[in-house]
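Complex record, two chains
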Amino acid sequence: MSVITVNGKKHQLDVDDDMPLLWALRDIVGLTGTKFGCGKGLCGACTVHMDGNPIRSCSMPVSAVAGKSITTIEGLSDDGNHPLQRAWREHNVPQCGYCQSGQIMSAAALLEQNSNPSVDEINSYMSGNICRCGTYTRIRAAIQTAAGEKTVMNDSSISAVNDGVQVWEAQS
Amino acid sequence: MKLKSQTGITQLDRREFLKLSGVSASGLLLAAHLPLAMAENQATFDPSLFLAIDAAGVVHVTVARSEMGQGILTSMAQIVADELEADWSRVKIVQAEGHEKYGDQNTDGSHSITDGFMPMRQVGASARVMLEQAAAEQWGVAVSECHAEQHQVTHQPSGKSLDYSVLVAAAAKQKLPDTDSLTLKSADQFRYIGKGLALKNLRDFTVGTADYGIDTQLPGMLYASIERPPVIKTKVKWFDKTAAMKVNGVHAVIEIPHSPGPALFNPAGGIAVIADNTWAAMKGRKALKIEWTENEHSKDNSAEYLDELRKTARSPGIVARVEGDVDAALKSAASTVEAEYSVPYLAHASMEPPAATAHYQDGFCEVWACTQTPQRARQIVAAFTDLDKEQVKVNVTLLGGAFGRKSKPDYVAEAAFLSKATGKPIKVTWTREDDIKHDYYHFISAHHMEAGLDASGKPSAWLHRAIYPDIGTTFAPQANNVGNLIQGVSNMWYDIPNVRAEGGAPDAHLRIGWVRSVGNIQNAFAVGSFTAELAEKAGRDAGEYLLELLGEPRILTMGKGPSGNALSRGPIDMGRMRGVTEKVMKAANWGGALPTNHGLGVAVHYSFLSYVATVVEVSASADGKIKVEKIYSAIDAGQVVNTDRVKAQLEGAATFGMSIAMYGEISTKNGQVEQDNYHNYQVARINEVPEIETFIIESTAAPTGVGEPGTPPLAPALANAVFAATGKRIRDLPLVNHGLV
């Protein structure tokens, strides 16, 4: 039995100690925003934060995160308006979108460590996150935008272009 | 009649009320009759399978194609909304299930907009006319005085207006206008078409709420992980499930039947472990003991196989096209050039592996799948559950990348079979290893090319033999690739008097499928590289030489080859081909000064009826490694719908092309694929991908393909840039095998 805190909420997980956090999040806790890509820590799709540090949840057993605080894409911000989430929308970054949770979580960790990264620093830090659709140029631009915005956190104009289009509904 | 409570859309059983009539050859349908049986208190205006407007005036556009990153859901809605004069903020998108009533739903071959542009405009325009008629009737005025704009119909002489929401009930009683009577907008009247609107579901992708095939969760659902035969068409000889059944959480171990005959889209067979969660299923699977049979594919090694393809390519093959007399022209040429190229097998490696969930109960099977071919999925699910397809419902989720892999619904059939076998909802999730080792691979190919040059260096003869196991081998024991040479071999467009194109029919040792841009990948590499080699032989600048070979603007209408094969998919407009080429050369300052050790390469290709040219700039470091510094890519795809998504596709296609050129290689040993994950099947990463400058040629010509055409020119442009920077000519991809990356 491992107790972990996910997005501020405690969960008692009655699972094998060796179950990777990824599958505990997806199959047990029911948070599917964190994605499976490779299972070997090679692609970054499963990136979450553990006590604020980025980890590849596919390669981290739940026993190693017991007592820790986990943040997933669903908990990155209260309202979906973290500067990176807004910048991602401003730059229309996603194509298929599958890797973007992991990209955003990695980028958030980068900006926590380095509030104004250079292009080389972005490339180096983000090189563990694969995007097969090829959104890399926009990821770079979005991180730079978010980095610039961090000093003007109250500027709400940036995401205006994408507000009001949250009307997506899949056919049930 | 049933109410869709979740969305508030009244979903009528349209087959009962509507007589459907085909529109054009695209297979898209408009309703010819109105839903007369619509309940009177439900004011939904439902003029088409693809469009409904509810009593609140909300426009629901149903999109029948699958969303895999190309932005098709938003783009299709843009088309309808434009002609409908809908307020974009009042437009919602509905993903269609898999059903033949929607016509062709195959989301491959870059043809969704090509096929859908005109019918979707007609859908929007028809509804707009009916709304105008309804308003005219209500006001007792001539319809010619009523004009729809931004969700309102206005009576122009008086200035009074009504919102669509108050007109839908009356509009539903109007006669559906004859398609021929519709006045569609002119290009300068477009409000949404040709604009870079944000994706309707953009926010979902940034907050973790976008649902893919892997994300389906049903009450009581169990999870499956499947060990498949390591060599195609081999079978389970024996297996022992004892240890697997002891793994905590494992419920069952079930053999999936082996399907004899060609691969088709059938599951490969194997042993499935069913468990409480994905991890338990994977652990149980590791504990299985299985021995597999062997067959004629068990000795296949791709290195030897490629040698055979090369040998085959050196001798006369199956002729696909003949112009003039190549042999005589080669003999009389002032000089000749000969070269051989190869491109390995490639895997799709979409970020979301194949995944599907099925629930079989009471003689009905419902599935949720990331599929590019929902109707094909429906058929195979029916076949593997012994149901009629009317007893199968396929819900299409978002696709986390696809690139052609998810056109093959073997994984959907696995889920359905296992759900029937267990009586439980089952989710099948492929691991990355499963995905890399059990793909429908892009075919390995060998190319033999010869050209004769006259005294001025201009080609007088061109011979291209392209030998590869064709996609047809997935459907029949033997198949030649002559028909598929239309992807850049038999439709070779240079202005050369003597031309011969030949193919072959080698046996396949893997399941062969289509990967983003298909045969154009290797054909463009061979043709684009050889063109630069001819320029080198002629002592000419590669870019200027390419423009000269493209020749004067003209339309090439190609006929059929000796075996009745079409030489080209469509007429080729050499003015447009030249246009994209000149655009990128100018953008890259072709011929201008470059830093030391930098080089530029250019290539152009026609595919999926579109024209894309690419210039790549590379630098070479002292240790011999190559860095891609900049990419320029221009497309002429006729009238584009969403400019931002077209640019995104060019960026993505160039990145996909970089992965192919730098790293792409699947190899086999003893019939088994040697790669299994992103460490040994590498793809381009952010630190390797430079700025990509993209250009859309403005055009009002009919829309053509966008998702794939950007990929083919990247590899030859890159190889040509490597030559320009280093003097090394790379004829066998990928670059990593030459120590360049």
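Note: Chain B has 17 helices and 33 strands.
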